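Q: Could you fold this chain for me?
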Amino acid sequence: MQHQKLKLAAGLQRQISEVEEQQVTPVAPDPRILRRTRSLNAPSPFQQFGPCGRIMKNSAMVMQIQDPASQRLTWYKPPLTVLVIKKKDSQVLLPFVQLVEWLVNEKCMVVWVESAVLEDKLLRDDVKLEQESSKFRQVHEDYAGVRARFLALRKNLVTFRDGRDDLTDRIDFIVCLGGDGTLLYASQLFQQSVPPVMAFYLGSLGFLTPFQCDNFQEQVTSVLEGHAALTLRSRLRCSIHRKGERRKESLLPPVGANLLKPSLHRQLNYVEFNNGKTGSVGCNNNNCPNNSILVLNEVVINRGPSPYLSNIDIFLDGKYITSVQGDGLIVSTPTGSTAYAAAAGASMIHPSVPAILVTPICPHSLSFRPIVVPAGVELKISISPDSRNTSRVSFDGRNDQELNHGDSLRVTTSIYPVPSICSQDQISDWFDSLAEGLHWNVRKRQKCLDELSDLTTSSSEDTLDEFDNLKIYDA
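A: Sure. Below is the predicted structure, expressed as structure tokens.
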């Protein structure tokens, strides 16, 4: 009897708690937000399983999965500062000058450019032409009108130097003119939060550059008014942990080699050299800009010039997974799945999918297939103790460094994605890039089956008249 009373009281208490949870003030739906006609089948960070089961709450949440259709750009105040990045190509000069001229004169925006742009010989009128080739003199003369327009705007531009000036919290909006490498360069400039990026296609492939320069005025105006969809392209946070007390100077080349570019000097400041110890107390590794490098495409570990196979150990959240015996390993984001990883045989993954791709490079094994792991895990990659040689590591194709025995590379998903502005929407932009860039699933279509033509090409000697007679008899 006492057991039944306790059971009844527990059931009553559960009903009361369920009623209290249901008595929540309903929030009126916002008609401006895109609503789906179907539910999203995706894991939620806040979940209850049945009447009693709940997922354990963890304050150290890596990321929160959001409905991709709701990722739209909004400005809580009008953007005033724009960073314009162009690739080093003479064919980009005219669109670059037209865009900057329009942003300064029509939109009254503060335009930032790289200081190397002001040093471009085609945009300067103090170049000693007698010391240049005849071909350059002809090109310099052809761009006389573009140069005059740029010199009239030069005093209104704000410049920065890569590796010296910090752009954090100074830029509201980024415009890239070039190919995919231009967007990768813009990503490397911001090792924390990245402003929205609008990339125009002036390169060769154009996976990450969905906009065309034909009507840039309408497109930029639409973005500045907040009418644009976003693709949050996740980045990888990579940190190098050196064995012992090896310092940063061990990575510098010999005196006189002059191999370091400004971007490498800047990136070296973000690499962790002192065996994983940060300089500040109580600093979260994912928030500290001084102990990691953020990459948009991939981090590659390879055997370099050595004739021996790479022997690399892979750990997932501290647990040993496997070893790679081959030419190396690619750890990439979904954005990088269509780059080096695709060439190595990996699957192509939409950039909105939270994941990390692990792809071996020419593995000496027939069963080593590329794998996809959750975005929140941490990968530890180290040189096997019995490896015959060291390995090289590069970040988005730059800053090649050596990994020695005992060193390790740790990779996880960063909390700072690259908000890439869509020309149409997330789905259309990505599949258009697959079709135009890789000719994905392009083949001659199979002809439809025509019953009459199929019968006429059969081995039978029947004529068309006999087939007509058969139809009459059937009727």
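A (continued): The radius of gyration is 29 Å.
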